[in-house]
Amino acid sequence: MAGLVPVQKQLADSYGPAAGELESRYEQLRSAFSKTFHAEPECFARAPGRVNLIGEHIDYEGYGVLPMAIKQDTIVAVKKGGDKLVISNVDGNAYKTQTFETDPKQEVDVANHSWANYFMCAYKGAFELLEAKHSKVPEPCGLQIMVHGVVPLGGGLSSSAALVCSSMLAVLAAHGITADKSEVAEFAAKAERYVGVTSGGMDQAISMMGMLGVAKLIEFNPVRASDVVLPPNAVFVVANSLAVSNKAEAAPRRYNLRVVECRLAAIMMTLALGATPEASRSVQTLKDVEPKVAESLGSPGLDACLEAVHKHLHEAPYTHDELETALGVPLDSLYTGSPASLKVLQVAREGGGFKLRQRAEHVFEEEKRVLEFKAVCDGSASADDKLASLARIMNASHESCVRLYECSCPELEELTTKAKEAGALSSRLTGAGWGGCTVSLLAEGRVDEFLQSLRNSFYQSRISSGHTKEEDMPKVLFASKPSSGAAVLQI
Ligand code: NG1
């Protein structure tokens, strides 16, 4: 248990010394709410985005990751009222108001991808949490909701998790329920999958359990977070490649395909290690393979898993036929409960097969990097030596995302290269990739010069061509410190 979601009485409890800058935003949200619903909100709930420092594409394989919450967040104002769920946004031009019935069992309309679908995920998740963890489930009732989010969309900074977590807290708060942070993280992660992305639980966990001043090692099953104190001279700069990654829409060819490839790799490794096809088919994640490797090779740990990958998985992509022959069943039968994964299999038939060895190698190596990153932070080396080690680990992660996981894109490559030319010790894609943001490591004192240089080399031409605007630059390129996690605000 991570402790109850805090209920705060003043903005400073969430935002620290920066609270003053937030007052006008809360006022704007309050006034949009009263203009739309002719009443005052009962409370607010906020949840931040995050930047992942190390551990990419391994949360859904059960492995630990190391992100920090960022100051950009989504705030939801809520009040009980009416007999429908009315979901509005302060930016009503971009995000149209949507109305839903109050039945928590309704399906999320995946075919019509809309921003409000994330609210519906949260709404369903809130009731699932209540059913699982609370003796008395409240009667569903109408809710009036106004949202204001400033986490860049499709940027790999978890705008979706910020919306899902803040919405879930708002629904729970409206029903008078204060839940445990890790329970909300767990149910929010499950609920977000209703939009059709078979994602892991990192984003919701850090959004709920983030803390001012420290990054977190997030581990799963059960979800939990432990503090990671970053070297005092380390500054992390987030830069948006401006290539928007539409994760939900592209999922069958990208994100969800990787999740399927990892599971197939885990199954094929288990089979090669001597399990029957039937037993192999029940394996879900690469982490599940670790004890089987230990038993079979006589040595535990990630290096033994890598040895098994190299020994048992071939480099050429696996075909449907090859996998079905080895497993003795149609691949579809492995995914009967998951329409999103069935869609992957359907799309993959026309694609280039499944790259099992490359994906598994990335996952085990990346988890080694997570553990090493934490060990460096916890260790007693000088601050400069720590920076050098963290930079090496982060660069290796990016290299692996490019070469083995194939989740980069030309814009991210240009941006990481230019970031290093501009003085970053390391620069890597963060989040799912295929667009979105990079995170670069800088030594304190080098940041202003870096921001100016990257602005000239990467962004100036994009401002001139209208790709982004001068006034949006603070949202596109910024230094970030670990910020606090989600909260309910009664202000
Ligand atoms: P983004 O796309 O950055 O929100 C996604 C997943 C994470 C994790 C990372 C890759 C969602 C909600 N989040 O993050 O769980 O797998 O990719 O490390 O899909």
From TrEMBL:
Q: What is this protein called?
A: Ribosomal protein S5 domain 2-type protein
Q: Cite the source lineage.
A: Eukaryota, Viridiplantae, Chlorophyta, core chlorophytes, Chlorophyceae
Output the NCBIfam families linked to this UniProt entry: gal_kin
Give the GHMP kinase C-terminal domain ranges. Answer: 387-459
Q: Where is the Galactokinase N-terminal domain?
A: 32-80
The cross-references to Gene3D superfamilies, in alphabetical order and at most eight, read:
1.20.1440.340, 3.30.230.10, 3.30.70.3170
Q: Which family is this protein grouped under?
A: Belongs to the GHMP kinase family. GalK subfamily.
Q: Which GO terms describe its cellular component?
A: ribosome
Output the InterPro entries linked to this UniProt entry. Galactokinase, Galactokinase_CS, GalKase_N, GHMP_kinase_C_dom, GHMP_kinase_C_sf, GHMP_kinase_N_dom, GHMP_knse_ATP-bd_CS, Mevalonate/galactokinase
